[in-house]
Every structure is written in structure tokens, then in C-alpha cells.
Write a structure and sequence with these properties.
By secondary structure, the protein is of the alpha+beta class. Helices cover 41% and strands 17% of the residues. α8 crosses α9. The relative contact order is 0.07.
């Protein structure tokens, strides 16, 4: 009589219909009898192999504790399982496993059908979690939108730049939404996957930053320019040698209207790295020029005449005061340097300079102050006599005195207009022209409340 523990295998017929998906774990030991003979081991193993339903025509032979298996099965796992089962059986000394593994039938659709059944069961079991995940993401999407709106309202009250407000609000909203994604993965017991995705998002940002370095530089430069405000819309600036009026600032470039009436786009990264000369921030502008007078002229008289012209000229500022200084003792002239201040918001610097130069020239000629050109020396061989050409003035003949032209003494000529500034005309061109940069303008309004 063979005693079979209930913990090993049940002999109930309902459990013989076992599928290939069942657990193929082998019992650690199968006890047969305190002193099992070969026939008992054979009968026990044959019964177990038959009960599983995994084997076709299973044959078990036992000789002196050595088990010989024959028959066929569909998988290597079942063959290995039978060998492990025999090794764990009481009083078995060795196992010879001759079970043949059958090649699968190409027309056998059972594995595909079984796989579809398994897939359907997985889908149906995942539907509740899918609904839960969608609900959580929708809730956190709404929360992120409310948080972004509240952040914008708070930052607006702090008088922060609009671009910086938008970036800060979106950053907070993205963080809240990523928190919702993390909760969904955590509930699904996929915390490591969630952390991998979040870490990959940061890594992806670094990769994209390297790949699109120029775009990233321009974007960051637009933020810094918006925060620091080195210029406003309509300001007259000089950026890296490019002069014009600022029209707009986008996340990519700064748009200027040049003094020639052309649109000029400068990448924000270059603007941020360059020296920016803002003429509008201080409307008082200084220009300078040099006039050379002869060594026989009185420097003091020349300075007094120029100073008088500056004092009477309506476009020349008295504060800061204009200066007339000796700059250089050249080969044939004494060079005087003139420094003149003008209100650039009211007058055109080039027009005022033209008017001042014309009046100084007229005053010097009227006062007999010579303005010779560079000295030229000609060397002749000994014995060469120079005779004046017929019809030319000799040394004893007196040259007619030069008289200044009356029109040159006028304060303003027709060509110089009224010396007024042309800034509004150029700005009006910028307002009516088509802007080649259609991005959102990040500049603050100018003093008049208008943007370019």
C-alpha cells in the first residue's frame, strides 16, 4: 500500500485538465514509502505524469533506483520538470530522461488563441486603472491650469516682466502635472518607471539644449533683456555698430528700424553680449569736430568767436557748456577741437553740426582768421629762376580780400530745415511698415504708452 501525501498532487480528475500556463515548479521531495521499491517508484511517477496531461504516452521504467523516462511532450520546460520531479522522489538514485520534445504544428492556432485570451484578460483588468489614471490626470490638468492662472496674477501684481511671468507660470503648471503623472505610476506600482521618465525628461532637456544651442541662447537672452530692460520700444540705440530705433523684441531677435528706413534683425544672444549705446536714455548728445587755423591767427580770438556763436545758437545747450580747446599743433595749422551739446529729442545732431560749422567758417573768414590746408614744400635746383606766368599776380601785387558769402552767416538754411529731430518720421515709418518678425513683443511700452 502506497501512502500519498495530499500536499504532493491530488488525484482528482478535474485537476488533470491542466494547461501549459500552469506553474511548473517541482516539489522539493516526493515521498513514496519508508522503503520504496522500484515498482512503487514507477507507479508513482507514471501516475503523476499522466495526471498533469502534459505528456503523450508517458513510460516510466525503474531499475535499482534509476528512473528511465520515455514518451513525448510539447515543451522543454515540461521535459525538465519531469526530470526534476524524479530526482526529488524518494529512493531515486539517477534519472535518464528520454522524453522527446515534439515540434509545434505550424497549423496549430492554439498558442495564438491562448495569447489573445490572455491579452483580452489583461485589457479588461487594466480598464479600471485606465479610468482611474485618466481621472487623476484630468484633475491635475485642471489644478495646473488654476495654479498657472494664480501664479500669473501674483506675478503681475509684483510688476514682473510678461515673458518671465509666462515662463514661471508654465513651469509651476508643468511641475503640478508631472506630480499627477507620478501619482498614477505610483498607484500602478511603477514608481521606478515614473522616476525614469522624469529623469529622462531632464536628460532630454539637456540633449535638446545642446542640439538647439543657438535657439536656446536666443531664448535665454530674450529673458535677460526683458528683465534688465537696456532699452524700450522706440529707443534710438547702437548695437554692435548697428544704429536704429528699437521696434520690437521677440524670443528670437531684436528688430531695429535703421536710419535708412530698413528693418534689421539682430539675434538676442548677440544683443546681450554686445555693447548697447542708448541715445534715448539721455537725450543730451555731444558731437565734436576739428578746425585748423593758421599760426598767424589768434587762438584766443578764434575761441571767442566760436563761443559767441554757440551762445547765440538756439540748438546748442549751455549746460553742459560747449568747449573750444587747442587739440594739436600740426605742421601748418593749429587744430582746435570743438565740443557741442545738443538735445537729441528736439534737434537733429547732423543738422545742428552743419549749421555750427557753416557759421564758424563765415565768422573766421570775416575776422581774417586763416584756415590753411596742409603745408607743401617744393625743392628746386640752384640756378633755377621762377618767372610769373603772364596774367598771374606777382608778389608786389595785392590779392583781393576774400569776403564771406552773406548767406553763410544765416542761422538756418533751407537744406538744414528747422534743425528739428527726424526721429518721429522714422518711428512713423516703423509703425506703418510690415514687421518681418511676427513673434510676440516682449518690450515694455515707451513713455507715450505705445509699443512699436
Amino acid at each position: 500500500m502506497i501512502t500519498i501525501p495530499l500536499s504532493v498532487y491530488a488525484q482528482d480528475q478535474s485537476q488533470t485538465e491542466t494547461t501549459e500556463q500552469e506553474d511548473t515548479a517541482v516539489p522539493e521531495r516526493v515521498d513514496v514509502a519508508p522503503a520504496a521499491d522500484d515498482s512503487q517508484i514507477r507507479d508513482r511517477l507514471t501516475g503523476i505524469l499522466t495526471a498533469t496531461g502534459w505528456f503523450e504516452n508517458p513510460q516510466v521504467e525503474v531499475n535499482d533506483g534509476v528512473v528511465f523516462f520515455s514518451g513525448s511532450t510539447k515543451t522543454d520546460d515540461h521535459k525538465k520538470w519531469a526530470g526534476d520531479l524524479a530526482r526529488n522522489t524518494q529512493d531515486v538514485t539517477a534519472v535518464v530522461n528520454r522524453i522527446e520534445v515534439l515540434d509545434p504544428d505550424i497549423w496549430d492556432y492554439q498558442p495564438a488563441y491562448t495569447g489573445l485570451q490572455e491579452l483580452w484578460r489583461n485589457i479588461m483588468s487594466a480598464i479600471p486603472f485606465l479610468i482611474f489614471g485618466i481621472v487623476v490626470l484630468v484633475i491635475f490638468w485642471g489644478i495646473s491650469a488654476l495654479v498657472a492662472k494664480g501664479a500669473r496674477a501674483y506675478l503681475t501684481n509684483r510688476d514682473m516682466n510678461e515673458l518671465l511671468q509666462d515662463i514661471s507660470a508654465k513651469g509651476i503648471a508643468i511641475f503640478v502635472f508631472l506630480l499627477g503623472i507620478y501619482i498614477v505610476f505610483h498607484v500602478a506600482d511603477l514608481t521606478n518607471v515614473a522616476l525614469t521618465i522624469l529623469g529622462g525628461t531632464g536628460l532630454l532637456g539637456i540633449v535638446l539644449g545642446i542640439a538647439f544651442r543657438d535657439i536656446t541662447e536666443n531664448f535665454l537672452a530674450s529673458i535677460f533683456l526683458s528683465v534688465q530692460n537696456p532699452f524700450h520700444a522706440g529707443d534710438h540705440v547702437d548695437i554692435n555698430g548697428n544704429t536704429g530705433f528699437v521696434q520690437r523684441l521677440t524670443i528670437r531677435a531684436t528688430l531695429l528700424m535703421t536710419l535708412d528706413g530698413n528693418h534689421l534683425q539682430i539675434p538676442n544672444s548677440l544683443v546681450y553680449k554686445s555693447s548697447i549705446l542708448n541715445y534715448t536714455s539721455n537725450p543730451k548728445q555731444r558731437f565734436s569736430f576739428v578746425i585748423g587755423i593758421g599760426y598767424d591767427a589768434s587762438v584766443t580770438s578764434a575761441q571767442d568767436l566760436a563761443t559767441k556763436i554757440f551762445e547765440e545758437h538756439p540748438a546748442v545747450l549751455t549746460e553742459p557748456e560747449p568747449l573750444v580747446l587747442v587739440d594739436k599743433l600740426a605742421s601748418s595749422t593749429i587744430n582746435l577741437m570743438f565740443y557741442v551739446w545738443v538735445d537729441g529729442s528736439k534737434h537733429n545732431v547732423l543738422k545742428v553740426k552743419s549749421s555750427v560749422l557753416r557759421q564758424i567758417k563765415t565768422a573766421y573768414m570775416a575776422a581774417g582768421i586763416s584756415m590753411p590746408d596742409d603745408a607743401r614744400e617744393r625743392v628746386y635746383l640752384d640756378g633755377v629762376t621762377l618767372h610769373p606766368k603772364k596774367g598771374t599776380a606777382t608778389s608786389d601785387q595785392k590779392k583781393p580780400e576774400s569776403t564771406p558769402i552773406a548767406e553763410d552767416s544765416q542761422l538756418i538754411t533751407k537744406a538744414e530745415g528747422q534743425l528739428e529731430s527726424n526721429d518721429e518720421e522714422i518711428l512713423e515709418q516703423a509703425r506703418t511698415a510690415r514687421s518681418p518678425e511676427e513673434g510676440e513683443d516682449l518690450l515694455k511700452p515707451n513713455k507715450s504708452g505705445e509699443t512699436m
